[in-house]
Amino acid sequence: MTQTENNLLPTLKFYADFPEDWDRFDDKVRKDISGFLKHLQSDPFDPRITEMSEKNGGYYATRIGPVVVYWKLARREDSIESVLAPPDAIYVLAVHPADRLAQ
Amino acid sequence: MSFRFDRLLSSQSSIGQSRSSILNPLQWMTVILVGGLASFVFAHAPTWLIILMAVLLSLTFALFAGGFIYFMIREPGTLRSEMYALLKGAMDRGYFTADVVALLAGQEHKIERGQDIEVKDAKDIGETIQRSRRNRPPGGSQS
Fold first, then answer.
1. Same domain, B87 and B40
2. Do the chains contact at A101 and B118, CB–CB below 8 Å?
3. A88–chain B nearest CA distance, Å
4. What is this structure's pTM?
């Protein structure tokens, strides 16, 4: 990826305690989460992502193997760009074990 | 065989006959205006009436096309039928409990105040986390 393309990607903003959660994941889960976030960052409006996600207001929950990643597309409030423009950032708000959330 | 009007009504009011998508009213409006325009032309109606109908049709179609592109990108699920939305809702796995939503709102607020870890490219997640850990005061949490 070129430097210019890299600058066009929305920044990923993780919750502050993410490193502690990251340490608890095994290599496979880390690789899967990285792969998902890479996909999300390169194409935030990909219908395949939204279809595999549960939505609540502006929040999305996507199951990645044994965990659920909660995320949100963020845009500056003063932004006057088109609503179709890519988001300024993607907030990764939480990562929870899926079995703890199962009904 | 007796004719059961109540059964006919009940079958016609089933969920399968419900609004097919968010743009369905605009589709019907377009059909009605096309029918009206064709009728006016056929009946040799006054020119201003035909022009008015054509303008209304163009506006409706532009709104339909704009809406379709918008929802295709932002909310593709709304272009599907209500039945699909109901089935998808039933299939949802309950990831959003009240506690989780409250937690997410709190985390979002913290991120907006700058208590976050920024990663420019997803492939650098591991590296960025290592770096943020090194920069963190010992035993302290940013949250």
1. yes
2. no
3. 11
4. 0.63
Position B66 pLDDT exceeds 60 = yes
Interface pTM, i.e. ipTM? 0.84
B95: tokens are 């990831």
CB–CB of A72 and B104 under 8 A? yes
Asked if the C-beta of B8 comes within 8 angstroms of chain A's C-beta atoms, the answer is no
* B-chain residues near A102 (CB < 8 A): 93-94
Cα B75 to Cα A51, A59, A76, B7, distances in angstroms? 10, 13, 20, 36
Name the H helices within B75-114. Answer: 82-91, 98-112
Q: How many CB pairs under 8 A join A and B?
A: 119
What is the extent of the structural domain holding A60? 3-101
End-to-end CA distance of chain A: 41
For A85-100, what is each residue's pLDDT tens digit?
778 899 999 999 887 6
For residue A59, give the CATH number of its domain.
3.30.2310.20
